Amino acid sequence: MNVEYTGRQYEATPAVRKQIDQGLAKLQKILGTAFKTNVILAAEKHRHIAEITITIRTHPIVGIAEAGDMNSAVGEALERIESQALKYKGRWRDKKRQPKKKWNGEATAAEQQAAVGNNLSTAVPVVVHTYPAVVRTAEAHVTRDDSSVALRPLTLEEAIKEAEFRDRDVFVFRDNQGRVKVLHRTKDGKMELIEAP
User: Fold this and answer.
1) pLDDT tens figures, 126-165
2) Which of 34, 95, 144, 183 sits between 20 and 30 A of 160, alpha carbons compared?
3) CB count, 10 Å around CB of 60?
4) Among 3, 71, 7, which residue's Cα sits nearest to residue 42?
5) DSSP of 94-155
C-alpha cells in the first residue's frame, strides 16, 4: 500500500497510522490495490483536520473531516471516502461494457460464398450477408387529431398558411371543387402537394 503522510503542525502517531491502514485495507476490498493515497494531518488550536485523497487511475476521491481529536477526524474522513468509493464502484459496474462489433472488410465463413460467374476465369468473389428471418415491426399506435384537417374548403395558398400556422408536417384539405389534397413537409422543409384521385 503506497501511502504518503504530510503533517502540518502535527506528528502522525502510530495509533493514527494504524487507524488509517485499517481504513485503507477496507477500501482495498472495494477498489482493489491500484490506488495512491495522500494523507494530510493538520492541527490548528483546538481543531484537528484530516484530509485523505485516493487517486484511482485519474479519478481522485477526497475525504476531509474536522474534529476535536485526530482519531475521530481520521475516522470521519475514512467514512466519507468509503461512501464515495462505493458510489464510484457502483457507477463503474453499472456501465454496459459490451464491445462494439465492427466489420473489418472480411466475411466469416458462414457469410462468404465462393464465387459468381460462368467459369473460374471470370468468377467474381461475392460476400453474402445474413439478415434476420423475421423482421420486427412495432405495433401501430393510432391517435385521432383534428388539427391536421381543414373543415372548410381552402385554396392552396390558404392551406399552406394554415399548415404553417398549425405547425403541421401533414395537412389535409379540400379545394373549392371538393377534391381532397394533402400538403406534406419534406425533410428539407419544402411543402409537397399530394392530390387524391
Assistant:
1) 666 666 666 667 676 677 777 778 878 888 888 888 888 8
2) 144
3) 13
4) 7
5) HS---PPP---S---TTTEEEEESSSTTT-EEEE-----SS---PPP-----GGGB-SS---
Structurally, the chain folds into a number of domains equal to 2
Q: Which residue has 399548415 as its cell numbers?
A: 163
Compute the distance between CA of residue 2 and CA of residue 135 in angstroms, rounded to an integer.
57
Residue 18 has pLDDT above 80, yes or no: yes
Residues in the chain: 197
- Domain end (from 59, 78, 94): 94
Q: Which triple of cell numbers denotes residue 118?
A: 460462368
Average pLDDT along the chain: 80
pTM of the model as a whole: 0.47
pLDDT in tens, 147-158: 778 878 888 888
Q: What is the largest CA-CA distance in the chain?
A: 99
